[in-house]
Amino acid sequence: MPLVLSDLRADHLENPLALRRVTPRLTWRVRAEGTASAPRAHRIRITAADGAVAHDSGWIDSDATALEAVDFEGAPGSDYRWHLAVRDADGAEVEASAGFGIGLADWDAPWAEPVQERVLAEGPLEIGPEVFAPAADAAPPGERLHPPRHLRQAFNLPAAPVSARLRISSQGVHQPSLNGRPVGDGLLAPGYESYQHEISVMTHDVTSLLREGANVLGVILGDGWYAGRISILGRSAQYGDILRATWRLEVDLPDGSRHVIRPDASVRSSRGPIDWSDIFIGERHDARAEMPGWDEPSADAEASEGWTPCALLPVSVPLVPFVGEPIRRVRELPAQRILTTPAGETVIDFGQVMAGRVRMRVRGERGTVVRLEHAEVIDAEGNFLDNILGVNKDQADEYVLAGRPEGEEWEPLFTFHGFRYVKLIGYPGTPEPEDFTAVVIANDLAQTASFSSSHARLDRLVQNTIWSQRSNFLAVPTDCPQRERAGWTGDLQIFAPTAATLMGVAAFLDRWLRNVRVDQDAHGGIVPIIVPMPPAMDDPDRPNAGLGDISDAAGWSDAITIAPWELYRHYGDPRFLRDNLEAMRTWVEHQTAGAAASLPAGLDPASLSPERLARQRLLWNGRMNFGDWLAPSTLDGSRPEAAGLDEFSAIMLAPQLTAELTGPLFQIRSLDLYAASAEALGDAVTAAQAREHAAAVRAAFAAEYVGDDGRIGPDMQGIAVLALAFDAVPDEIRPRAVARLVELVQEAGVHLDTGFVSVPFLLDVLWDEGHADLARALLVQDTAPSWLYEVDHGATTIWEAWNAVHEDGTVERMSMNHYAFGCVVDWMMRRLAGIELLEPGYRRTRIAPDLDGVLDHCQAHVDAPAGRIAVDWTRTGAEARLTVEIPLGVTAEVALAPGWTLDDPTELTPGTHTLRAARTEEGSAS
Ligand code: BGC
Fold first, then answer.
1. What positions does the domain Alpha-L-rhamnosidase C-terminal occupy (predicted)?
2. CATH number for 86
């Protein structure tokens, strides 16, 4: 049997239609079946649409499964095929091929701008308590929002096409159709990005939707992120208040001719059945106003009233190819039960917190209005509780029945909600569960890992994390899918290692990182705390528009060093480093300059010795940031400093206590990753300089903040964890710092007191310092704050705060769907299941199952670039059996805890291995 080739990808995608890079990275997987020997050489030829060879790598002696054809540059707008040949050690050859297209670099079509009313700019301009309070006296949405526009362009084709592409973009969200059929299965296109700098173009293969003769292109345009209510403020019209669309329909006919259809004077627009639609507020659809056939060729549609010509305007913002998985319907969940609550309300329970919307079947009288309100929780009494308050955060949809005797079905088009429960108002007749389906929407990323074990609650924790990722990898990586839906950079960096383990995030985060860089450039080198940064929070004339003093923040802005590094580690693609190295450099230089320019509040330079002043000038500690955000002891009243604080001040206590330290700690982190990135790219000089600088910052940090007794700064768990994890504690003090951390954990009754930015490192630090048992105890702790408390209290996602639901069932009005604390899954995969990446792309992997721990059995896998790495192990008493699967292109070492011996060699080559281990000594690793 020969080698088997699969998963041919260009820039991490299967057959992408429009790449942004003209030199794609090509990757593939090789499997050996039967007697095939390992791959020894490969050759790639790239051919253009006319069959001409555009690149030939020649035979390359290597077992690598990736190639960047550096001397190939694809022409914008062209399609290519690439042909891969792989030779094994015996000279046997196999071949496979796949396609890719290069997107357009320039755009030559105008905007079509329908006649419309301007979107009203409304909602708060500053963050204050009212942003999170019930919206007082807001006028009904119908009085403030306008109907999405329907656009149609009729055209004739002399013949059915041999090939056709629709490239389409919009200011606002769009839904295209051709001859009455939806184009593609994407939703909410083109997604969310820093629209003032660039807007994505979606590319569709529409060959089968076109025909000879009359055709019609339809486009529905809604406010979306561009003009609708967004982010923490819930303010509208931030990027613009007029909706527009542009397209290029490229049709290749059998005679070899190409017709390009762009918006022109023939485009007409009208309102349709959607009265209003907003991502935050919701959508109202009046089925009585539907326009059957509006996007099909028919004389009626042409002649009907209300269709007006569109203005044609030049496109001045750069339009760029959208690269990656679109937002799609990724799951459907049936209603689990319909409750009548103690308050007498009808509430549908879908059994799962998610991001999406409801598809409903209904039959009733024409004009009946059904309203669906969405929330993530029910309260202690079992009543529907709207856990997200705030201006324009309604999350409510309405449907007006046409009164069709056979019944009608509806799902909103341009909105989504964060919810599990739906309050149903005005439904005619008795609602039955089968009439309601929750449609989960997300960027359609592949799941690339699994974890299933003898510990059902830990399994649930992993599932909850996957659900939170699915709910928040939606357009951009967001904090939550209901209240803010914002690209908080901190949340993403915290979760990045887990995100890249659980799902194929390469293209998604690559796209977001472009936005990070664009926004960084627009902010003079500062990486904003939210990307895309909503303009309303970014107004230099209103310094309090955003978060007051916080514009660049430790552990948030550092996403620019952390996220590319994680992508490089997981996918082994150096371009993640190459593309971001300059941005990393700008960021660490900003930290350095900031360190020199400011001292912590209250520190008078005149009162400092020259040595201290010199040290302080090295530390990036003079600016407010979020500190170890949401550290439990700052919120639960257990710290003396918290006495008498109101809710808002309590939330700001963690920043007050810890920001001075998280600043320099993340400065060290960013310098380290910048150095590592430069080194990986072969720039040893830059790497050495950054390391030297990091060493100086470490020394200054230690002298200023690390006590001889091992207490660091405010003596809190999170700070100890970060200082140890980032190696900011001198060797001679380290044992005392570890002992103090252990004491702090114990004093907290074996509970974590780590906030957002330190929690990813807590269990690793304890484990690496010889306290594996304490790490395990924290993992399975089930009183709050803890991971399993959430699981035991009904969580189906990861909560924003550990005690979002209290012991007595009282529910906090917080997000139930914030992935940050799910970062522990990366640890569970490495330390419990035992699949640990050692070299970028998993080329070298450690198999280190926790045979001394809380699991008797674990089955897990990670889909590495080269193929699946899987473990399946069972411990019975003092014996363990392991089955390990290693793909071609990966080598692995087995590392068992001290006391365990393996009957087999510890070095694993590709293939499936069954191993036996026995515990020869009593006692575990710690
Ligand atoms: C968001 C976070 C975010 C934070 C900044 C919150 O309102 O939901 O997850 O990172 O603000 O501290």
1. 834-897
2. 2.60.40.10
